[in-house]
Design a protein that fits this description.
The complex is a heterodimer of chains A (about 220) and B (about 650). Chain A contains 9 helices and 6 strands. Chain A is of the alpha/beta class. Chain A has a single domain, classed as Flavodoxin domain (Rossmann fold), CATH 3.40.50. In chain A, β1, α1 and β2 form a beta-alpha-beta unit. In chain B, β5, α24 and β6 form a beta-alpha-beta unit. Classes of the chains: A alpha/beta (about 220), B mainly alpha (about 650). The complex binds flavin mononucleotide.
Chain lengths: ~220, ~650
């Protein structure tokens, strides 16, 4: 039994229009070159709460009640992760299997997530050009994430295309990291303040690229 | 007896009054002791001629200090500082000696005497400087370390100096002394000589034999320190008598000092070598904390005697000369030091610390002046005068440190970047108790590249650990001084795994009170102990058998044919359920930690016992409820509509 002060589940209660929950999953964060920095950047934004899933549940023993309470308290749910085998790292799958319960997330009574915005912020090792029908990976990134998209629909959520960084293994060397982090922060702030053009965003293959055109400036 | 008690009373009284006042005024303890000495000696005349004898005894403090310094430096660290040691130290001694000798020549001194004086005054005061640096927390800085290297070199240089000085004997003095010896064998100078001869193994030996004896003595310190001291200390430690262990440590130091004196070597050097050799031993921290108080007191006594020994008659009779010489020496040495600091690229702050800190003459100056006098190098009046110069320069040192504190430090530029290699390595994790529990903790930490300091009061445990190449130290971890020696002040974590439940609680309580920033993780024997540790402030406390029991019961379920992942879920749910119960009960317990008087807790416990069966049943229900929670498919028939 540990005697650490118990984690509060209330977390940061920023009076923002849409509080954001980032579920961060990286099994070896100390070797991460991209995701770690995205996670760090997210923690410093008011109104954004980040949960390090591997940090909190090192044995995959996900606390369903706690996770459901978190979902209820936020309006935007983001998966932040590297692309592993065209999908999420294992703990995010475990999280879905446990937390998205019948009667909570889906089913006639399961309306807890209705209307909440969902998307995945991911990094892929492969280059963007390879993610298309003629390319090495044969499918676009949005197509590969179909299971997530359909799960979101089943839960009545508003699905946005992924915020994706390609060729992630060389992003640092090629100096692409900083710009990506800036975009990531802009995106989160726009979502939080309800300044993102949701219906336009839904049509895109990915969120980044033309991001500034989607954001209304105040 | 009365006389001794009275003197003891006077010394202690002076120290107890003067030192705290001096510290309060920001002058440092050394100046406090010196002033105390001046007050009881020359000013009030409460102590008199016996001071020089006491000073001789108090030099043991210096010897012990070098022993402690040695303990901090294992051979590899010493090797790593060889450039600074030889380069800086060697140049400092050579250049200072040359400059001072030249100045003396310019004042019309015979070249022999000039050279002798130069050599004598090239030395600085290890006692004052090291004491002050530690007190001000400056010993780890670049300037502090450089100062230490130079001081160490000087201590080593003492050996050849003692051999060299007699060669500089002045022919005239030799004649006079020889005369005096014939006519009055009790002449002051030769008395010490005779005294020395009586207690020497090397007096009167031819050069080659002298060399052999000296080498033999050093070899015996090296070999004895390496092979004999540890079994001896282990043997004594087994007796579990604290004071006998302390006595053994003192014996070690005194024996080495005696041996060194017998062969005309510096006792400080001998104990320094012994310290270095023992730096890697399991007794290091215990030795440190045992010697530390003796060193402190004796060193204080030493400073008092320096103050008390100042001859005001000569001082005021020839005030201008003494003051002029003192300032001259400090200036010359300061110039050499400043130049060296530039040469070795010390940063501004460190350069000034180094320059101001080492500019005085040292306590070995007294020794060497006495020695020179008895070897007809210097006349008695001159020796007395120069002794005053030594004393006055030492007296001025704390003032120089005050200059550093008040005038130099405030100018420290914020821009000066910290040296990468000076950022001290991360504090260690201290593990108290290396029994079956502590061993496992230590293994995982070390495997993860964490530096640990292991303490145990069972010499045999330590021995076992050594056999497996694990470094651990002998000593009772519940002793504050030992904890400090082990580095609790910089430690990140303390892990309490000692086998005495009450002392474990005391240890947690003490460390959390004194060093709130240190995280404390403790092993608990049972629930009550866990609560006590929690109340004492432990950041983490774990029941020692809980995890193993849980794992064994999980294995049992698997043996019974339950699916391994089902078992895993059951065990996880059980753990959560149990911990929640533990938290609830703690709240009741915390109101009245005295279990016997805690009605509510007793009632709860009785209830627990009486309805154990019922409880087990709810355990079962709740666990099933929890484990069935996850991976639940949608209800049958609902599929069509939603999934
Ligand atoms: C187990 C594993 C599976 C991976 N699968 C893919 C993949 O299917 N497609 C791809 O483009 N990159 C794949 N990668 C590369 C990772 O996406 C890439 O290393 C990661 O995005 C780099 O981000 P990081 O520096 O934050 O870890 C995989 C990497 C690992 C370790």
């Amino acid at each position: 039994m540990t005697l650490e002060p118990h984690r509060t589940d209330t977390e940061d209660q920023h009076p923002s229009a849409r509080p954001i929950l980032v579920l961060y999953a990286h099994p070896s964060p100390d070797r991460s070159e991209v995701n770690r920095h995205l996670a760090e950047a997210a923690t410093s934004i008011p109104g954004v709460n980040l949960v390090d899933l591997y940090g909190e549940y090192p044995d995959y023993g996900i606390d369903v009640d706690r996770e459901q309470a978190r979902l209820l308290a936020h309006e935007v749910i983001v998966f932040l992760h590297p692309l592993y085998w065209y999908s999420t790292p294992a703990i995010l799958k475990e999280w879905q299997d446990l937390v998205l319960e019948h009667g909570f997330a889906y089913g006639t009574e399961g309306t807890a997530l209705h209307g909440k915005v969902f998307f995945s912020a991911l990094t892929a090792g492969g280059p963007e050009l390879a993610y298309r029908a003629e390319g090495f990976h044969h499918f676009s990134i949005r197509e590969l994430l179909n299971p997530l998209e359909q799960s979101a629909h089943l839960c009545g959520m508003v699905y946005l295309p992924p915020f994706a960084l390609f060729s992630a293994r060389t992003a640092v060397e090629e100096g692409r990291l900083d710009a990506h982090i800036l975009e990531w922060v802009d995106l989160l702030k726009a979502l939080r303040d309800d300044r993102l053009d949701i219906s336009r965003a839904q049509q895109l293959p990915k969120l980044n690229g033309e991001l500034s055109a989607l954001i209304r400036q105040e | 007896m009365d006389g001794m008690l009275f003197r003891l009373f006077v010394y202690l009284c002076a120290a107890v009054i003067a030192v705290p006042i001096a510290k309060r005024l920001g002058l440092g303890s050394v100046l406090g002791y010196l002033i105390a000495g001046i007050v009881i000696g020359p000013l009030l005349g409460l102590v008199g001629s016996e001071t020089s004898e006491i000073q001789h005894f108090a030099e043991l403090g210096v010897v012990m200090m070098l022993f402690l310094i040695g303990l901090e430096l294992d051979p590899s660290t010493l090797w790593a500082m060889r450039t600074r040691l030889l380069g800086m130290g060697g140049l400092q001694v050579a250049l200072s000696a040359a400059l001072i000798a030249l100045a003396a020549l310019a004042l019309g001194t015979d070249w022999r005497l000039a050279l002798a004086v130069g050599l004598i005054f090239s030395l600085s005061s290890t006692a004052i400087v090291m004491q002050t640096l530690t007190e001000k927390g400056l010993s780890g800085t670049q300037g502090g370390r450089s100062s230490f290297s130079v001081l160490l070199f000087q201590d080593i240089a003492l050996v050849p100096l003692l051999a060299l000085l007699p060669l500089l004997a002045s022919p005239e003095l030799l004649l006079i002394d020889a005369d005096a010896l014939v006519h009055a064998p009790q002449a002051a100078g030769s008395e010490t000589l005779a005294h020395a001869a009586e207690m020497s193994l090397v007096a009167g030996l031819p050069g080659w034999a002298h060399g052999l004896v000296v080498l033999g003595a050093i070899a015996s310190v090296l070999l004895g320190g390496h092979f004999l001291s540890r079994p001896l200390l282990r043997f004594v430690a087994e007796s579990r008598l604290r004071e006998i262990f302390t006595a053994a440590v003192l014996l070690l130091v005194v024996a080495i000092a005696l041996l060194m004196t017998l062969v005309d070597l510096s006792p400080a050097l001998g104990t320094f070598i012994a310290g270095v050799i023992l730096a890697n031993s399991e007794f290091r921290h215990e030795l440190e904390s045992d010697i530390e108080p003796f060193k402190g007191l004796l060193l204080g006594l030493f400073f008092i005697t320096v103050g008390a020994g100042i001859d005001f008659e000569i001082l005021f009779g020839d005030f201008a000369t003494v003051l002029g010489l003192t300032i001259g020496v400090i200036l010359l040495k300061g110039c050499v030091l400043f130049g060296l600091a530039r040469l070795f690229r010390l940063k501004t702050m460190d350069r000034w610390l180094f320059t101001l800190g080492l500019a005085q003459a040292g306590e070995f100056g007294f020794v060497l002046l006495n020695f020179s006098m008895s070897n007809s190098v210097i006349a008695m009046e001159d020796a007395k005068l120069l002794s005053l110069v030594v004393a006055l320069s030492m007296l001025l040192t704390p003032a120089l440190f005050v200059i550093y504190d008040r005038l130099i430090l405030p100018h420290k530029s914020r821009a000066e970047p910290a040296d990468a290699d000076e950022i001290d390595e991360q504090g260690p994790v201290i593990i108290a108790g290396i029994g079956r529990f502590g061993q496992i903790v230590n293994r995982l930490l070390i495997a993860s590249g964490i530096r640990t300091v292991v303490l145990d009061h069972e010499a045999s445990q330590i021995e076992t650990q050594h056999r497996f190449g694990i470094k651990s130290f002998f000593g009772d971890a519940t002793r504050p001084d030992l904890l400090r020696a082990a580095g609790i002040e910089e430690a990140q974590l303390l892990i309490v795994a000692i086998d005495d439940r009450d002392r474990a609680v005391q240890l947690v309580e003490y460390v959390k009170r004194r060093y709130p920033s240190v995280k404390v993780l403790a092993r608990a024997f049972d629930v009550n102990h866990l609560y006590l540790l929690r109340k004492a402030g432990a950041d983490v406390a774990l029941r020692e058998v809980f995890d193993a029991s849980l794992r064994l019961s999980a294995e049992a379920l698997k043996q019974l044919g339950m699916h391994a992942f089902k078992v895993e879920k059951m065990a996880r749910a059980f753990r959560r359920h149990d911990e929640a119960g533990l938290d609830q009960l703690y709240e009741l317990w915390d109101e009245h930690p005295d279990v016997a008087k805690n009605r509510a807790l007793l009632a709860r416990a009785r209830e627990h016992r009486e309805t154990l069966a019922v409880l087990m049943e709810t355990d079962r229900l709740q666990l099933h409820d929890r484990t069935e929670r996850g991976w639940t498919p949608p209800p049958k028939g609902a599929q069509a509509s939603s999934k």
